[in-house]
Amino acid sequence: MNAVRRTTRSLPGLLFLALALALVALTATAPRAGAATGVSAVADALRKNPVYVDPAAAAQLSTADADALARQIKDADKPLFVAVLPAGYPTKDLFTNLRTATGVTGLYAVRLGDRFDARADSSVLSRTAVQNLVTSVQGETARTQLTDFTGRALTNMGGKAPASWGGGSTGGSGVSGTALIALGAVVVAGGAGAYALVRRNRRRHEEEQRAALDRLRVVVDEDITAFGEELDRLDFHPAEPGADDAMRADYERALNAYDQAKSAMADARRPEDVRAVTQALEDGRFSLAELAARREGRPLPERRPPCFFDPRHGPSVTDATWTPAGGAPREVPVCAADATRLADGRDPAVREVDTDYGRRPYWDAGPAYGPWAGGYFGGGILPGLLLGTALGGWMSAPAYAADYGTGYGDFGAGGYQGGDVSGADFDPGDFGSFGGGDFGGGGDFGGGGGDSGDFGGGF
Q: What is the pTM of this model?
């Protein structure tokens, strides 16, 4: 008996025990060829790991590539879920059912055969941004498509990874008992120092966010004041001769937007909170443009982004070619006055803000202005407009995405942020984004159901 005890305490015995534990973990977590692949099974796998590859679709994405993708998502700490499914997988209400079964707020991407589509809760990424991201990777091989989509999505999306994933990539391959033992020893040995470092970094991060918000507050207060002055100059009275219900509704929406902007700014605690303020101001200015058209008997204006050079100019009326310093030409939305200036070869009236180096255009002023610009321009066009500028460069960096990544995604209803467990408490219309929970969902750019423009390959 003593000999047996000495043997089990020996190093070979410990190694055997570790190997046995690793095999048990691998058996418990690895998908089996005969495993069920219903939505519930896929959702259960995604709650444990960000990447799921159906056994019937294993030829599309290797285990090593799936592991690398999962590791990338976990390292970014974002709620991105990727599923690779066989071509014959049922598509009816796939995204809505998968989101309901998973129960976690996030961005869901599905490669189904050779087709690809995605949906997101708007608190994580705007519907337009999802649409643009999916379109940008159509026609690629599975590995390239998923790698490109993941990299671009992680840069733009908000939220945090769900706690159920834990740390590090599992990718379905399991973790050895020896690695777990070594990791535990490191955690215990460095726990106290790591805790102090985390607290110090958190305090520094909070101070940086406060400083960024203070700088933004000056610019946003100027915007709110300018909109209030527009309301004063309007000289509209709901009871004036010729006023109708439509005009009064426009005016009421503009007043509500003004109040909403002031309230949102008063409640702002982080730079990304500013997005709600500028979004309200953009809505209010469009209401004023509609009111002006009704009073003057003109056709109602098309809903367009504000003037790129200074959103205080109001809604744009056309697109014009503009080239930033050191960048490539691109089309930007402009107001009538700036369109005339550009056509005459003159400089547009650019919104400048204070920086440590003097007055600069807002796109050269620093990363904190991303949420401010995102509220005005939304997720769909902002990255393209800012490409090649300092702000565009900052926005594409992982550090910016971690701090202000929600700056150009929609903030969803219900109060759930990315990674929160909401269960079935979400709006399918908000999550479906493009016309329902079906794969493809009628998400063509024209908003209809045409086959040629179907989003995600017309599922």
A: 0.48
- Six-digit token string for 401: 């995405």
- Given a contact cutoff of 8 angstroms between Cβ atoms, the answer to whether 304 and 310 are in contact is no
Find all residues with CB under 8 Å of 437, minimum gap 6, and list them: 93, 94, 95, 96, 97, 119, 428, 431
Burial class (CB in 10 A: 0-12, 13-18, 19+), 187: exposed
Of 170-174, 300-304, 394-398, minimum mean pLDDT range: 170-174
Alpha carbon distance 26, 225 (integer Å): 61
Q: Which amino acid is at 112?
A: L
Task: Find the DSSP H helices in 80-141.
Answer: 94-102, 127-136
Residue whose structure tokens are 């049922």:
90
- What does the H/E/C string look like for 274-290? HHHHHHHHHHHHHHHHH
Nearest in space to 426 (alpha carbons), one of 186, 104, 136: 104
Give the residue-averaged pLDDT of 266-285.
91
Q: What is the largest CA-CA distance in the chain?
A: 105
CA-closest candidate to residue 268, choices 203, 201, 214? 214
